[in-house]
Amino acid sequence: MTTVEEALKGIESRLPNPAKLVPELGQVSGALAAVAGNGSVPRTTIGLVQLRVGQIFGSTYLVLLHSGNLREAGEAEERIAAVASWQDSPHFTDSERVALALAEAVFTPNPGGQRVPDALYTEASIHYDDKALATLIMAIGQVAFYVPLAVIGQPVPGVPFPVQWR
Known about the structure:
By secondary structure, this protein is mainly α. The protein has helices spanning 4-8, 18-21, 24-36, 43-56, 60-72, 77-82, 94-107, 118-127, 130-153.
């Protein structure tokens, strides 16, 4: 049987470590992380949203990264696995559901209407005060910031991002 480390041996990302190529990336990344981690939204909720965005974009790298982060934070395997089908899962609170719905609305085309309908925004504002809602919106933006690097650069799953990226 092959271990993950053996399977990844010799595999390289398309793009060398972007933080070495563009040092300012570390500053931007750090600032985004500070916004998302300001404490107004539970870290678990942000992690669930990040995982869902990775799933929406079909990025194995982001899915493994955010699943691992949730595990390290003590999140239950049932909840991590259920993120892909959160709409019909009993594992999430109402506030987590609205956060996941916001992320999906932003990244899922809606040809006939608004990406984020007024009803969804109103629901979110019931669960989150203005600071928390702004934080959640920026956390969704934070993971979107990494999507092009993950999808285009194809970092190797299991290799920390972005500092250790090849």
